[in-house]
Amino acid sequence: LFGLRFLDHPQPHRLVLHEGVDSNKPPFAPDYPPDRPLRVERTRSAIPELAGAEADVQLLPFGPVRADVVESGEFLFFYVGEAILHYHPRLFFKHRGLEKRFEGLEPQRGVVLAERVSGVGSVAHALAYCQAVEAASNCVVPARARVLRMLLAEMERLYNHLHYFGHLCHTTTLKVGEAEGKLLEEQAKQLNTRLTGSRFLRSVLAIGGLRRDLAPKKWLDDALNALRERFSRYAKHMENTASHLDRLITTGRLDRRLAFDQGATGPVERASGVDRDLRRDHPYAAYAELPPNVAVREAGDAHARAQVRMAEVEASIALMRRALELLPDGPVRADCHVTPDTEGLGWSESPRGTLFYAVHIGRDGKLARVKIKSPSFSNWRVFPFTVHDSNM
User: Fold this and answer.
1) pLDDT for 184-206, tens place per residue?
2) 95-to-100, 353, 358 alpha-carbon distances in Å
3) Are 378 and 353 in contact (CB under 8 A)?
4) For the whole prediction, is pTM greater than 0.90?
5) Distance of CA 68 to CAs 63, 64, 65, 97, 315, Å?
């Protein structure tokens, strides 16, 4: 994207700019016109070559266009019978160049863009971005805003994990479990709407705190307690359904060493015994005053990843109710004067893992460069290790 070339790179295949893209003029170069589309020629994609028994190996290209709402990724499976020999992902079919779109914006306007990097991670992205700008400007966020930021982050974690369970039951053909999980997700999103006006919790965060105050009061505490009781019954049913567990236990195992070496993050790493969580280890918002209970499992399989998320749902609800109990009075936004020619780093523990924003503010006080490190990029990195030597 920047025109850099690395010597002796062990994996030189393209990531973002697929075959056929004219990259003679790097699209992220400072002088590349932001309104100029990339020129793309139709060409055959490059796939890994087989050496040896090619006649016995079959290739299954899954995607990048498919039914349902799964994002556009292509998964190439090389297999013999039911055994997977090799899995090769091809992602970035919908790469939008958002880092380029940050350039030249007023820092406050960048919040709107950060909220739209990941549709279901609006709070995590906006929070990491705001904290990066605040770090560059030595801006201190008021106490009430810090607690409310934490509350919003946990509400985002809650509906993401509930969606996960509904989809997980879909993959194990547990139709009632799928419907129940999606119903719980919907109920969580309705709480989001009632609190903020947005199902995805957008248009609330701002540099220096929040755009406006929120009034959760007692209704949210009662609603969270009711949702916790419904989820507890739901989780108990899943953990007592043999056909569901049979498809999860020992499936897609990722051992601790691989999870650590390859950079797994979030529930994926914690299910493999790697005890890391930015909320506790490098606290932000109000997590220093209200640290979360971090769930860790050792098995590293699909069941362990589900168990971690189950524990995180319970912990998130308990943390939110505690935050409501201790929510202080006071302002929710500080005057944050952006300092020109500075840099800042911000982070958050999103529902999928660690998320980082590195921000460079130019001499004119506008964004000169914004770099995003998403958790999904890390977890896609480790996914092939859970697939190889598995079965279709």
Assistant:
1) 999 999 999 999 999 999 999 99
2) 11, 20, 19
3) yes
4) yes
5) 12, 12, 10, 25, 31
Whole-number CA gyration radius for the chain:
22
**Ramachandran assignment for 104, one of left (phi > 0), alpha (psi -120 to 50 degrees), beta (any other):** left
Q: 196: phi > 0 → left, psi -120 to 50 → alpha, else beta; which?
A: alpha
The span from the CA of 97 to the CA of 102, in Å, is 9
Those residues whose C-beta lies under 8 Å from the C-beta of residue 349, and which sit 6 or more positions away, are 124, 266, 277, 278, 279, 355
Residue type, 123: V
Other C-beta atoms within 10 Å of 321: how many? Answer: 17
Tens digits of per-residue pLDDT, 315-356? 999 999 999 999 999 999 999 999 999 999 999 999 999 999
CB 352 within 8 A of CB 265: yes
Tokens 């050496």 belong to: 51
> What's the Cα-to-Cα distance from 208 to each of 126, 271, 282, rounded to whole Å?
12, 35, 19
The two three-digit tokens of residue 337, written as one number: 């004067």
pLDDT digits (tens, 9 = 90+) for 142-155: 999 999 999 999 99
Amino acid at 221: D
Q: Specify the amino acid at residue 91.
A: L
List the one residue out of 368, 328, 360 whose CA is nearest residue 344: 360
99 pLDDT more than 70: yes
Q: Name the DSSP class of 32.
A: S
What sign does the CA torsion over 275, 281, 287, 291 have? positive
DSSP state of 338: P
Tokens of 44: 């055959």
Return the structure tokens found at 162.
């509930």
Neighbours of 278 (CB within 10 A): 20
Place of tokens 């893209």: 21
Residue 383 · residue 76 · CB < 8 Å: no
Q: Are strands 205-206 and 83-90 parallel, antiparallel or unpaired?
A: unpaired
- 259 burial (CB, 10 Å; 0-12 / 13-18 / 19+) is buried
